[in-house]
Specification:
heterotrimer; A mainly alpha; B mainly alpha; C mainly alpha; A: mainly alpha; Helix Hairpins; about 75% helix; B: mainly alpha; two-stranded antiparallel ribbon; about 5% strand
Chain lengths: ~100, ~500, ~625
C-alpha cells in the first residue's frame, strides 16, 4: 500500500482549517459560521487521523471520535442558540450580538 | 480590662442596631448611643481599676492566631494608646449625636458601619502584633469608605474611591515592610515573628532600616496626611457625612500620627534620625501649604479639611525634632486637634442642615439669628488659630518650642503658619457669621442651636478650655515617655 | 497654702469682669439694660477698687506682690529639670501703674459706654466683650511669665477684633476687624519666635528670672539679645500700631467710640510699650535695638502727625494722634527713659480717653456725623463738650500745667544726651510737638469754630452717667501731672537708672521744648484762619493729591496691598485646585486614557475576536518557528 505522505495530509488539513477559519471570520450569518466551525473541526480531525496512521498508533482515531462527539454536542447547542437568536433578533447576523462590548 | 470586649461590644452593638432597624427604625440610633456610652464608661472604669503602670507597654492579651506564621492576637496599651482610645470613644458619642437627625436612610446599617470603624480604630491603637495591626488598619478603612460612599454628599463615590485607593496603595507599602521585618526576624532569630516587642530588639543595618522605615512612613504620612500625599483628605472630608468627617478628622488622622510614634520612631530610631530633616521639612511645608490652601477655599468643609493638614504638619515637625517638649506637644496636638476639628466639622454639618449648602458665599450674617452658634463658632475658629487658653495653643506652643531646639530655621518658617491660620480662621468665621444676611430665598432664617447640638458643642468647648488651662491632665502621662523616646533616638543616632 | 489678704485681692482682681462676661453671654438679651449695666460696671468697679487696695499695699519696703494661682504647664529641660509656667500674678511699680490705668480708665469708659450704647440692641454683648477685654488686659499686665503675658496679648487682640467688628453687618467693619487682627498677628508671630529663641537660650519664661539670667549670660551687644529684642519689638510694633505695622489702627475706628477710647487709645495699644518696658533687661543688652526703637518711635510720630493733618474724620484724627503719641512713648523707651515713657502712657490714657469719649458724645449729638467738614460752630451749641474737648487738646499739645506737659517734657528732656537717642531725635520730638499742636488746632477750628455746617437738629445726650465719666476724665487729665513724683518713685525700683552721656546740653533746650506747641498754635491761628471764618465756601473738602495721599495713611496700605495681600490672594486663587492634587490626579487621568484605548478594542463583535485569536496564533507560531530555525542554525 503506497502511503500518502504525512505532509500531504497536513497540507490538506491546513487548507481545510484555513477555509474554515476564513469562513468563521468573514460570514455574518451564524449558521454559516457554525458550518465553518465544523469544517475547522474536521480539518483537525483529518490531521489527527493522518498523524495516527503515520505513527501507527490508535490515539489519532480516538481523538477523532472525541472530536466527532464534541462537534455533535457543539452543533446541538449551537443550533439551539441559533433558534433562540432567530426568535429574539429575527436575524442570524452575528454582529448583532455585541452586548458584551465595554 | 479587656480591649477585646470593648471592640466586640462596639461591633455587636452596631450589628444589633442594624438588625433593630428592620423592627423599629427609630431605635437604631438609641442602640448606637447606648452602646458607645456604656463602652466608654466600661473603658474608663476598667483602666482606672486596672492597677497597671501604663508608662510602658502593658500586654493585655496574647493568643496564638495563625500558628504556622507565628501570628498572634496580641493587644497592649500604654498611655499613648489609652489617651487616643479615650479620645476615640468620646468622639464616638459626638459622632452618634451629630448623626441623630442627619441620617434618614439605612440608619441601622449606618450605625453598624460607624461603630465598626470605631472598633477598627481602637484595634489599630492597641494591636501589637503587626499582622493584627495591619488587619485592623484594613478593618477601619472599609466601613469608613462605606460611610462616605453611601451617606456622603453629591460627589461621594469619587471621594470614597479616592480615599480607598490612597490608603490602600500606601498600606500595601507598609505590608511589604511588615513582611520584610518578619523575614528579617526569621533570619536573625530562626523563627518568624510579627510581635512588636520582638521587633524592637532586632538589629537592623542602617540602609535596610531606612527602606523599611520609608515603607511605614509613607503609609502613615498618607494617613496623617502630609503634603504631597494629602489630596484625598479634602475630598473625603467634604463628601463624607458629618459624623464621617468628625471621625476622619478626629481620630482617623491620628492613627497616622500614632503609627509614626509607635512604629517609625521606635522601630527605626537611627533611620528616623537620618530622615528627620526631610520629614520636618515636609511638616513645615504642610503647615504653610495647608494654611494657604485653606484660605483659598469657598467650601466650608474643604477649608476645615485643609486646616487639618496644616495642624498635622505641626505633629510631623514636632515628632521628628526628637525633643521631649516637642513630643508632648505632638501628643497634645493630637488631642486638641481631635476636639477642635471635630467641633468645626460638626458645625459645618449643622450649618448644612439649615441652609443645605457648604458654600461660604451663600452664608453670612448667621449671628443675627443664631448668636449661640456664632459664639461657639468663634471659639472653635479661635482654637484652630491657636488662641491661648484653648488646648490648641498649648499644643502648638509645646511643638514649636521643642522643635526650635533642633530646627530653628524650620520652626521660624512654621511659625508663619500662625498668621496663615489667623487668616483662614477669620475668613471662615466672618464670612459665615458676620456681614449681611445673604439672600437665600425662603430658608434665610437660620435657627439657633438645639439642645442636642448645644450638648455637643459645650462638651467639646469645655474640654478644649480645660486642657487649655490645665494641660497637665494630658501631659502628665507623657513626661517620662517623651524623655525615653528622645534618649533612645539620640542614642541610636550617635 | 494660705494667702494673705492683699494676695487674695490680687488673685481675684482680673476675674470679676470674667464672671460678669460669663453671665452676660449666658443670659444674653434676657437681661434688661439696668441689669447688664450694673453687672458690667459693677464688676469693673470691684476690679478698680481691688487695684487701688493692692497698690496701696506696695511700699518701699515691699515693692513687689506676687500670687501663685496654679501651675499651667511644665516644659521639660535637660535631665529632670523643668521650667514651670504658672498662672501667677506679679505686681510691681510698673504693673501697678498699668492696672490702675486699665481698671480706672476702664471703669470710667464702662460707665460712659453703658450710657452711650443704651439704645443698641446688642448692648449686653457689647458690655460682655468690654469686660472680657479688661480681663485679658489685666492678665497681660499682671503676668509673671511671658507665656501668660502672651495669653493676655492674644486675648486683647481677639476682643479688639470682636469690638471693631461689633456692628458686624457692615462689610467695612468686618474687613477692618479682620485687618486689625491679622496685622497684629504678624507682630505676634515675631514675638512668638522671640519666645522660642529666649527659651532655647535661657530655658525660662519667668520674666524676672529671664532678666537675671540674661544679665549673667550675656554682655551688652551680644547676638542673642539683639535678635530676641528685635523679635519682641516686632510684637510690640504690631500691638502698638507703630511703623511698619501701623495700618490697622485708623481702620479700627470702625468700632463703637467707647471701644476706640478703651482699646485703641488708652490700654491695648500701649501693650507694646508695656512689653518693652517690662523686658527692659533684655533691651538694655541690645543698644542697637534700643536705637531702632527710638527711631521707629520718632518716624511713627512724625508720619502719623502728618497723616493726622489731612484727615476729615474726627475719629481718624484722634487715631493718628494716638499713633503719634505712642511714637513718643517708644522714643522715650528707646532713649532709655523708661519711667518717662510709662508716665506718658498714663497721662495719654487720661486725655486720649477723654478726647475719644467727648468726640463720641459729639458724634452722638450730630446723628453719627464724623466728618469734620460737616461740623462747625459747636462752640456755642455744645459748650460742655467743647470745654472738655479743649481740655483734652490742651493736654495733647502739652501746654504747661496740663498732665501731658509733665510727661512729654520729661521725655523730651532726656533725649538729647541719651546713649541710644541723641540730638537728631530731639529735633524729631520737637517737630512732632509742633505737628501735634497744628493738627489739634485744625481739628478744634474745624469742629467747634466757624459756622454751623450740619442740617439736623443737635441732640446732645442728657445722660448723667455720660457726663460724670467725662468730667472725671477731664479732672484726671488736668491734674494728672501731680502723679509725676509718685510714679517716678514706684518705677525707680523697676527700671535700672542709666547714666546719660556727658554731653553739653545747650541752655535753650527746655525753652524751645516749651515754646514749640505755642508756635504751632500761632501758626495754625493764621494758616487755618479760613476754618475759623464764617465763609462757608472755605469748607469745601476738595483735597489735592498730596492731601489725599496723607489722608490715606501715606500710601502704606496701598504698598502692603501690592506687596503682600495681592500676591497672597493671587497665589491662593492660582492654586485653588491644589497643584499636588492635580499631579496625583494625573495618574488617574493616565489610567483613564489607557482604559479608553483598551476599551475601543473591545467591540463585542465575535468575528473580530475570532480573527484576532487566529492572527495571534499565527504570529505565535511564526515566532516559535523563527526561534527554532535560529536554534537549528546555531
Amino acid at each position: 500500500m503506497s502511503a500518502i505522505p504525512l505532509s500531504h495530509i497536513l497540507i490538506l488539513a491546513s487548507i481545510l482549517f484555513s477555509i474554515g477559519f476564513v469562513g468563521v471570520i468573514s460570514r455574518k450569518n451564524t449558521l454559516f459560521i457554525l458550518m465553518s466551525l465544523e469544517v475547522m473541526l474536521n480539518a483537525v480531525g483529518v490531521a489527527f487521523i493522518g498523524a495516527g496512521s503515520a505513527w501507527h498508533q490508535a490515539d489519532g482515531q480516538v481523538m477523532f471520535i472525541l472530536i466527532l462527539t464534541l462537534a455533535a454536542a457543539e452543533v446541538a447547542v449551537g443550533l439551539a442558540l441559533l433558534i433562540q437568536m432567530q426568535r429574539r433578533f429575527k436575524s442570524l447576523d452575528i454582529d448583532l450580538l455585541s452586548k458584551l462590548k465595554g | 480590662m479587656s480591649i477585646t470586649l470593648v471592640m466586640s461590644s462596639l461591633f455587636f452593638g452596631g450589628a444589633l442596631a442594624w438588625y433593630i432597624e428592620g423592627v423599629k427604625a427609630q431605635s437604631a440610633r438609641w442602640i448606637a448611643l447606648l452602646t458607645v456610652i456604656i463602652v466608654g464608661f466600661y473603658f474608663v472604669i476598667s483602666i482606672t481599676t486596672a492597677g497597671l503602670d501604663f508608662s510602658s507597654l502593658q500586654t493585655l492579651v496574647r493568643l496564638s492566631w495563625i500558628s504556622s506564621f507565628n501570628i498572634e492576637y496580641a493587644l497592649a496599651v500604654d498611655y499613648l494608646s489609652l489617651v487616643l482610645v479615650l479620645l476615640t470613644l468620646f468622639l464616638a458619642v459626638i459622632c452618634v449625636l451629630v448623626s441623630w437627625q442627619e441620617i434618614q436612610t439605612k440608619t441601622g446599617f449606618y450605625y453598624f458601619n460607624l461603630l465598626a470603624a470605631i472598633a477598627g480604630i481602637i484595634g489599630v491603637f492597641t494591636a501589637v502584633d503587626m499582622f493584627l495591626f495591619f488587619f485592623f488598619w484594613e478593618v477601619m478603612l472599609l466601613p469608613m469608605t462605606a460611610l462616605i460612599a453611601i451617606w456622603g454628599h453629591e460627589n461621594r463615590h469619587f471621594a470614597a474611591i479616592k480615599f480607598f485607593i490612597f490608603t490602600q496603595v500606601s498600606s500595601l507599602l507598609m505590608l511589604v515592610a511588615i513582611i520584610a521585618m518578619a523575614t528579617i526576624h526569621f533570619q536573625q532569630r530562626g523563627q518568624v515573628s510579627f510581635f512588636y516587642q520582638d521587633w524592637l530588639t532586632l538589629n537592623l543595618p542602617l540602609s535596610t532600616s531606612l527602606y523599611l522605615m520609608l515603607g511605614f512612613f509613607i503609609a502613615f504620612a498618607v494617613k496623617l496626611p502630609s503634603v504631597p500625599v494629602h489630596s484625598w483628605l479634602p475630598d473625603a472630608h467634604t463628601q463624607a457625612p458629618t459624623a464621617g468627617s468628625v471621625l476622619l478628622a478626629g481620630v482617623l488622622l491620628k492613627t497616622g500620627a500614632y503609627g509614626l510614634i509607635r512604629f517609625v520612631l521606635h522601630l527605626f530610631p537611627q533611620a528616623s534620625m537620618e530622615f528627620a530633616p526631610i520629614a520636618a521639612t515636609l511638616g513645615v511645608v504642610s503647615i504653610l501649604y495647608g494654611a494657604k490652601m485653606a484660605f483659598a477655599q469657598q467650601d466650608f468643609k474643604r477649608l476645615v479639611a485643609y486646616s487639618s493638614i496644616s495642624h498635622m504638619g505641626f505633629v510631623m515637625l514636632a515628632l521628628f525634632s526628637f525633643n521631649a517638649i516637642a513630643y508632648q506637644g505632638a501628643v497634645l496636638t493630637l488631642v486638641a486637634h481631635g476636639l477642635s476639628s471635630a467641633a468645626l466639622f460638626a458645625l459645618a454639618g449643622m450649618v448644612y442642615s439649615r441652609i443645605h449648602s457648604r458654600d461660604l458665599g451663600h452664608m453670612g450674617g448667621f449671628w443675627q439669628t443664631a448668636p449661640r452658634m456664632g459664639g461657639f463658632a468663634l471659639a472653635f475658629a479661635a482654637a484652630a488659630f491657636g488662641l491661648p487658653g484653648l488646648a490648641n495653643f498649648v499644643a502648638e506652643f509645646f511643638s514649636l518650642v521643642g522643635a526650635y531646639q533642633r530646627f530653628p530655621l524650620l520652626t521660624i518658617l512654621a511659625a508663619f503658619g500662625l498668621v496663615g491660620s489667623a487668616i483662614y480662621g477669620m475668613v471662615l468665621f466672618q464670612s459665615a457669621f458676620q456681614g449681611k444676611e445673604a439672600n437665600r430665598g425662603e430658608s434665610s432664617k437660620v435657627d439657633d442651636l438645639s439642645k442636642r447640638e448645644l450638648l455637643v458643642f459645650s462638651s467639646l468647648l469645655a474640654l478644649l478650655i480645660l486642657i487649655g488651662f490645665y494641660p497637665n491632665i494630658v501631659l502628665m502621662f507623657f513626661q517620662d515617655t517623651g524623655q525615653t523616646l528622645v534618649l533612645t533616638n539620640t542614642a541610636g543616632g550617635q | 497654702m494660705t494667702n494673705s489678704l492683699p494676695e487674695t485681692v490680687l488673685a481675684l482682681l482680673p476675674f470679676y469682669p470674667l464672671i460678669s462676661f460669663l453671665l452676660l453671654i449666658g443670659f444674653g438679651k434676657r437681661l434688661s439694660w439696668h441689669m447688664a449695666a450694673i453687672l458690667s460696671v459693677g464688676s469693673m468697679a470691684l476690679s478698680a477698687i481691688s487695684s487701688f487696695v493692692v497698690i496701696n499695699q506696695l511700699s518701699v519696703q515691699s515693692p513687689i506682690l506676687t500670687v501663685h494661682l496654679w501651675n499651667w504647664f511644665e516644659l521639660g529641660l535637660e535631665g529632670s529639670l523643668t521650667a514651670k509656667i504658672n498662672i501667677s500674678f506679679y505686681l510691681d511699680g510698673l504693673s501697678a501703674v498699668m492696672i490702675s490705668v486699665v481698671s480706672g480708665i476702664g471703669l470710667l469708659i464702662h460707665i460712659f459706654a453703658a450710657a452711650y450704647m443704651k439704645e443698641d440692641e446688642n448692648f449686653t454683648r457689647f458690655m460682655a466683650y468690654m469686660n472680657l477685654f479688661i480681663v485679658a488686659m489685666l492678665i497681660l499686665v499682671l503676668a509673671d511669665n511671658l507665656v501668660l503675658l502672651y495669653l493676655g496679648w492674644e486675648g486683647v487682640g481677639l476682643c479688639s477684633f470682636l469690638l471693631i467688628g461689633f456692628w458686624y453687618q457692615e462689610k467695612a467693619n468686618v474687613l477692618a476687624a479682620r485687618k486689625a487682627f491679622i496685622v497684629t498677628r504678624v507682630g505676634d508671630t515675631a514675638m512668638a519666635i522671640g519666645l522660642f529663641m529666649l527659651f532655647k537660650e535661657l530655658g525660662q519664661f519667668n520674666i524676672n528670672a529671664l532678666t537675671e539670667n540674661a544679665n549673667m549670660l550675656w554682655t551688652v551687644g551680644d547676638d542673642a539679645p539683639y535678635w530676641i529684642a528685635l523679635l519682641l519689638l516686632g510684637g510690640a510694633v504690631g500691638k502698638s500700631a507703630q511703623l511698619p505695622l501701623q495700618t490697622w489702627l485708623p481702620d479700627a475706628m470702625a468700632g463703637p467710640t467707647p471701644v476706640s477710647a478703651l482699646i485703641h487709645a488708652a490700654t491695648m495699644v500701649t501693650a507694646g510699650v508695656y512689653l518693652i518696658a517690662r523686658m527692659n533687661g533684655i533691651f538694655l543688652l541690645a543698644p542697637e535695638v534700643m536705637n531702632y526703637v527710638a527711631w521707629l518711635g520718632a518716624t511713627t510720630l512724625l508720619l502719623a502727625g502728618i497723616a493726622a493733618l489731612a484727615q476729615n474724620d474726627i475719629k481718624r484724627v484722634l487715631a493718628y494722634s494716638t499713633m503719634s503719641q505712642i511714637g513718643y512713648m517708644m522714643l522715650s523707651l528707646g532713649a532709655g527713659a523708661f519711667s518717662a515713657g510709662v508716665f506718658h502712657l498714663m497721662t495719654h490714657a487720661f486725655f486720649k480717653a477723654l478726647l475719644f469719649l467727648t468726640a463720641g458724645a459729639i458724634i452722638l449729638a450730630l446723628h453719627h456725623q464724623q466728618n469734620l467738614f460737616k461740623m462747625g460752630g459747636l462752640l456755642k451749641r455744645l459748650p460742655f463738650e467743647t470745654a472738655l474737648f479743649a481740655i483734652g487738646l490742651v493736654c495733647l499739645m502739652a501746654l504747661p500745667g496740663s498732665s501731658g506737659f509733665f510727661s512729654k517734657e520729661a521725655i523730651i528732656a532726656q533725649l538729647w544726651s541719651s546713649n541710644t537717642a541723641g540730638p537728631m531725635l530731639w529735633y524729631c520730638a520737637i517737630f512732632g510737638a509742633l505737628l501735634t499742636s497744628i493738627y489739634s488746632c485744625r481739628l478744634f477750628f474745624l469742629a467747634f469754630m466757624g459756622e454751623k455746617r450740619f442740617d439736623h437738629e443737635l441732640q446732645p445726650s442728657s445722660s448723667k452717667l455720660l457726663k460724670l465719666s467725662l468730667i472725671a476724665l477731664a479732672v484726671l487729665s488736668l491734674i494728672g501731672g501731680i502723679f509725676a513724683n509718685t510714679i517716678e518713685l514706684s518705677l525707680s525700683a523697676v527700671f535700672p537708672s542709666i547714666e546719660p552721656l556727658n554731653l553739653d546740653e545747650p541752655h535753650w533746650l527746655h525753652s524751645v521744648a516749651i515754646a514749640a506747641p505755642f508756635v504751632g498754635i500761632l501758626f495754625s491761628w493764621f494758616y487755618f484762619s479760613n476754618y475759623r471764618g464764617s465763609n462757608k465756601e472755605n469748607y469745601q473738602d476738595n483735597p489735592s493729591a498730596l492731601v489725599l495721599f496723607c489722608r490715606l495713611g501715606l500710601g502704606f496700605d496701598r504698598l502692603y496691598d501690592l506687596l503682600l495681600v495681592k500676591p497672597y490672594c493671587y497665589l491662593a486663587r492660582l492654586n485653588k485646585n491644589d497643584l499636588f492634587d492635580q499631579l496625583i490626579m494625573l495618574n488617574a487621568w493616565y489610567v483613564g486614557i489607557c482604559h479608553d484605548v483598551l476599551k475601543s478594542s473591545q467591540t463585542g463583535k465575535l468575528r473580530w475576536y475570532a480573527a484576532a485569536i487566529g492572527l495571534a496564533t499565527l504570529l505565535l507560531l511564526l515566532t516559535l518557528n523563527i526561534e527554532s530555525f535560529s536554534l537549528e542554525a546555531s
